[in-house]
Amino acid sequence: MAANYWVSTQRKFWTFTPEKLLEIRDELDRQNSKVLDQWPYPDRRLMLIFLRDRILQLGKRLQFRQQCVATAMVYMQRYFLSTPMQNVNLYLLVATAFYLASKTEESPHHIRLVAAEARQAWPEFVPGDVSRLGEMEFCLISEMRSELIVWHPYRSLITLKENQELKLTNDELGLAWSIINDSYMTDLPLTCPPHLVAIIAMFLAVVFLPSAKAAGTLRPLPHETLSNPDAGHFSSLGVGGRQSLSTPINSVLSNLQMSNLMATQSNAHLNGKASFLNQTETPSQQPGDREKVINPSKDNEKMQNTIKFLVESGINIEQMIEGTQELISLYDIWEQYNEKSVKDAVARCMKARGLDS
């Protein structure tokens, strides 16, 4: 196992730019166009919501660490980069990903127990032969080239809690925790480093905490989770997430972008580039205005501190904003989620293609 994310196989081989990810998926769709056209599935994010719920359904009867769910989701996301959803028994894949993740996260279950629970949960689609789960495990490991260690954002979020400038409350931490859990239904695990996902979740939690309280979607983080993030509970904003995100986010993101621009220009002045910037700055872009942009509201010290932290942290602000918008779009489309329609589409495809035997 790599000592940190930056030298891990996750960063080297399983982190992509959005453009590269789109290219991989477009090529996969082109190669399997006939099957995809004949058996269309709903939006990928809706499918991932469905699969995540199946993992939680399976885990109800089995003790598991929270990270087992997150790791299993990452395994399936990686697998779908080389295999269309229509070409695999999704229920068997869910059981296998959970089984493999439980071993990776050091909370293993016997293969017969996982197979039996999966068979009981989905008798129509999970074969009784335990060897089928073993075969699927071999296939999953092979597709991932045995690169099984996954780095998650949870510990980075705990580190942010310890930052004295941010002064995160337990309510904000709990909301951010739920947002991280929901991020596994997006492309963020394949495009962003874990610490950036944690920062995105923290930022959204600070912005939307008042709305979350009003909507009743707030779930405070248990104190024991702070000392043992791996064993934390699995919460989610779910379909109520859009209600929690009722605050106008665009204005906040604009403030963040402008703050980052001001910081960049200010640093350029300090590096001896003042002559160039003086020719291009408008009166509203003078370095003296930086504090005004960083402090969008004198009445909101929390937002001031958060934006100041983001600007001074050295993170990729543009990538963070893209990730923020991706999470918001997840909650937008979540309102369209209908479990029965997804389940019916999966059943039709699997039965017609003989994937249920």
From TrEMBL:
Q: Which UniProt keywords apply?
A: Cyclin
Q: Where is the composition biased (Basic and acidic residues)?
A: 288-299
Q: Where is this region: Disordered?
A: 278-299
An example GO biological process term is: regulation of transcription by RNA polymerase II
Looking at the UniProt entry, the stretches that span the membrane are none
Instruction: Give the molecular function GO annotations.
Output: cyclin-dependent protein serine/threonine kinase regulator activity
Q: Which domain of life is it from?
A: Eukaryota
Cyclin-like domain segment(s): 53-142
The record's annotation in Pfam families points to:
Cyclin_N
Q: Which Gene3D superfamilies match?
A: Cyclin-like
Regions of compositional bias (Polar residues) in chain numbering: 278-287
Q: Give the protein's function.
A: Component of the SRB8-11 complex. The SRB8-11 complex is a regulatory module of the Mediator complex which is itself involved in regulation of basal and activated RNA polymerase II-dependent transcription. The SRB8-11 complex may be involved in the transcriptional repression of a subset of genes regulated by Mediator. It may inhibit the association of the Mediator complex with RNA polymerase II to form the holoenzyme complex. The SRB8-11 complex phosphorylates the C-terminal domain (CTD) of the largest subunit of RNA polymerase II.
Q: Which family does it belong to?
A: Belongs to the cyclin family. Cyclin C subfamily.
Recorded hits in PANTHER family, A to Z, give: CYCLIN
Q: What is this protein called?
A: RNA polymerase II holoenzyme cyclin-like subunit
